[in-house]
Inverse folding.
């Protein structure tokens, strides 16, 4: 009986090991859009929501940068995101951190008591700096492992920097604007500016300042969307400016006083490749 | 603890290492492990299991030593307390919602629904009833009884085991031989295959279709319903297979809960093959005590209908579950009338009977899966509108699913025809292939809870 248990165990372990080795060998290719954000420590980070994910490219900021921003759902400002950020930083005094802010990233749902990032990848993952990151592949890769093993998917050009653009969605469609505004108005309606999230942002700034320079930025969005945000969160810019003044940072709002336009958008509140290039270069000049 | 989580695999590994090496402490070990398994989700709710165990242990002892009148009273205590716990945690808010419709205000509570509460309350209740009926003797060991109530492989999603079958096995006297071990491994792996490969893959598509049925062609919405039928079968029978496998590793034989239900040629047959432990529970403790089919025709129909209505309600405190149960009750009554009273024996070919049965089953599943009644009607409307075009989601996953479902279908069909491929000579190849397929095609991203936990 012991032999049969041992034999089964060894055979299953061997099969598993083979799959594991194959995965390690293939982990250098394209896995998914979030994977490269979890593979090593970086000295400089772009932090924020999907607006920063699409709208700020390390390509134009310098090779030490990683775009460590995710989505409105996964990475609003809070303790969970802060912890992940601290685990990603290389210990140095010369780092640069670009913190993208927007009202929804600092808001909480009025009806739901629990934080929306709970249960998300940043809340659940332990290891954010291993390459290959098998924890990510086994627990958060949303497709079967066979997809990694069976294809030789070339990495997109900017993949390793954590930034991505999708060619087929890279232009603004006016007809989708109303739908987008309605959808977000619903979200804004059931949210309020959160002092807890603001406190987390302030904590983050205070801590990051000991590692280097910090910049706050509100990226360009469609004018109608900007009006909508200001309607529900009228004091947002003021609050950000106050924080910036208090901690001696720059707060750059690309929606006021910058020559931007619809041609830089991929949808009502995300920049396209051109938009990312423009805002990244503008920020680079300020650095 | 979820069977498809890393935490569980570590738990199982540690448990079996101790279980095989310390024969004398197997009962307390299994009990501690069971409480840990449940408490890992929420320790506070262990109190409920303990209370339920305490009451039924005491009640059964009293039933055995007391006279007729007192026996009845003790049985009543067991039924009222078990149903009371169930009613409070599972149905109270639903009841309060219904009362608010007639302007009666009943305060609601915020307690979480304890995982698997319907399973273990039914299991404990059946024990007291069996002792009352004299079918079994009251268990003398409190430890063993607690283990019967909380036995971890089947605690949260069944199969619901009868005391006469499970309790004697919980002394763990039976040795696990080579065939038993290989069968257990095979059951566990096929269970995981059904769950993480098929059910979870199907769930991704089903969720999108049921959330927005209007976005898809009628054929694709219908495909969504078929996929849900596959999803719920693989999810639930997958859980049962894993439970049976782990129990078998301890030398315990749990009852089969599914016998290829989608190879049924009538609704009556479907219920003989689907969630067998629940349908036999309702048969023995509700349908037959109500009079079963040995009463006047109208009463028989009432009994059938009441049984299925309550079976629907057992699944959840929502009207769509009730409608699902009631629909099955109606169709089974129609079958009963045509077979036993009208003596209709229509010469339909088997394939027609099969397709008719499956269409009814699928139709009923729509109510089971839909988020509410309006959503169910929306899905039905979108199927019958016969709309073409629309978007297609996850094409790659759909294709993969078709092949994998075909594989499962062929496997189940062979079993249905009693052609068993899992033979000694090819134990290892089958186990390795199942493991490899699960590993390569499984959906491991953390989202796949077992559907039946909510019941």
């Amino acid at each position: 009986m012991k032999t049969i248990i041992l034999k089964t165990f060894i055979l299953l372990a061997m099969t598993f090991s083979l799959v594991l080795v194959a995965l390690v060998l293939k982990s250098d290719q394209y896995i998914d859009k979030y994977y490269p954000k979890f593979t090593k420590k970086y000295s400089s980070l772009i932090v924020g929501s999907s607006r920063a994910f699409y709208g700020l490219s390390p390509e134009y900021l310098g090779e030490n940068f990683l775009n460590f921003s995710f989505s409105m759902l996964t990475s609003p400002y809070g303790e969970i995101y802060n912890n992940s950020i601290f685990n990603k930083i290389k210990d140095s005094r010369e780092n640069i951190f670009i913190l993208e802010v927007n009202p929804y990233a600092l808001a909480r749902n009025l009806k739901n008591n629990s934080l929306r990032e709970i249960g998300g990848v940043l809340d659940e993952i332990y290891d954010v700096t291993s390459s290959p990151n098998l924890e990510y592949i086994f627990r958060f890769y949303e497709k079967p492992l066979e997809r990694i093993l069976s294809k030789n998917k070339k990495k997109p050009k900017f993949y390793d920097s954590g930034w991505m653009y999708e060619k087929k969605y890279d232009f603004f469609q006016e007809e989708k604007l109303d739908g987008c505004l309605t959808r977000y108005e619903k979200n804004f309606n059931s949210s309020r500016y959160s002092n807890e999230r603001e406190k987390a942002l302030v904590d983050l700034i205070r801590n990051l300042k000991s590692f280097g320079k910090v910049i706050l930025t509100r990226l360009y969005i469609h004018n109608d969307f900007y009006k909508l945000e200001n309607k529900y969160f009228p004091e947002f810019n003021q609050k950000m400016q106050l924080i910036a003044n208090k901690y001696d940072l720059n707060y750059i709002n690309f929606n006021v006083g910058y020559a931007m336009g619809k041609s830089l958008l991929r949808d009502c509140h995300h920049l396209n490749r051109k938009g990312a290039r423009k805002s990244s270069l503008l920020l680079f000049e300020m650095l | 603890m979820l069977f498809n989580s890393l935490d569980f695999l570590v738990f199982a590994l540690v448990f079996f290492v101790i279980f095989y090496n310390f024969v004398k402490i197997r009962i307390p070990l299994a009990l501690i492990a069971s409480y840990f398994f449940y408490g890992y989700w929420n320790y506070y709710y262990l109190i409920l299991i303990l209370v339920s165990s305490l009451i039924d242990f005491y009640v059964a002892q009293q039933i055995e030593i007391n006279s007729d009148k007192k026996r009845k009273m003790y049985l009543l205590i067991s039924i009222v307390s078990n149903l009371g716990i169930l009613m409070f945690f599972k149905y109270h808010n639903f009841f309060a919602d219904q009362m608010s419709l007639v302007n009666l205000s009943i305060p609601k509570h915020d307690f979480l629904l304890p995982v698997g509460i319907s399973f273990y309350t039914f299991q404990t209740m059946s024990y007291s009833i069996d002792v009352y009926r004299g079918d079994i003797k009251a268990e003398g060991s409190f430890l063993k009884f607690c283990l019967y109530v909380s036995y971890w492989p089947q605690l949260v999603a069944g199969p619901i085991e009868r005391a006469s079958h499970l309790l004697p096995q919980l002394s763990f006297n039976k040795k696990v031989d080579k065939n038993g071990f290989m069968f257990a491994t095979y059951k566990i792996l096929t269970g995981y295959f059904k769950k993480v490969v098929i059910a979870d893959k199907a769930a991704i598509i089903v969720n999108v279709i049921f959330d927005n049925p209007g976005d898809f062609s009628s054929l694709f919405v219908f495909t969504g319903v078929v996929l849900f039928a596959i999803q719920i079968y693989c999810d639930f029978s997958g859980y049962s297979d894993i439970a049976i496998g782990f129990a078998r590793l301890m030398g315990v034989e749990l009852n089969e809960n599914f016998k290829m239900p989608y190879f049924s040629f009538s609704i009556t047959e479907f219920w003989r093959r689907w969630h067998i432990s629940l349908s036999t529970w309702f048969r023995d403790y509700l349908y037959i005590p109500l009079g079963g089919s040995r009463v006047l025709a109208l009463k028989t129909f009432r009994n059938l209908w009441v049984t299925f209505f309550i079976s629907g309600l057992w699944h959840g405190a929502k009207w769509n579950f009730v409608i699902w149960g009631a629909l099955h009750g109606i169709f089974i009554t129609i079958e009963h009338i045509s077979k036993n009273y009208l003596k209709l024996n229509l010469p339909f070919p088997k394939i027609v009977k099969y397709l008719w049965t499956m269409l009814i089953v699928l139709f009923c599943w729509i109510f089971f899966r839909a988020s509410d009644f309006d959503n169910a009607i929306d899905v039905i409307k979108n199927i019958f509108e016969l709309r073409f075009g629309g978007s297609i989601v996850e094409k790659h996953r759909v294709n993969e699913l078709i092949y994998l479902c075909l594989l499962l279908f062929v496997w189940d069909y062979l079993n249905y025809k009693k052609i068993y491929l899992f033979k000694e000579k090819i134990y290892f190849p089958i186990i390795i292939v199942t493991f490899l397929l699960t590993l390569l095609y499984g959906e491991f991203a953390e989202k796949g809870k077992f559907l039946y936990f909510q019941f």
Chain A touches chain B through 21 residues (CB under 8 Å). The beta strands of chain A are 44-47, 65-67, 95-100, 107-109, 191-193, 212-218, 250-253, 265-267, 270-271.
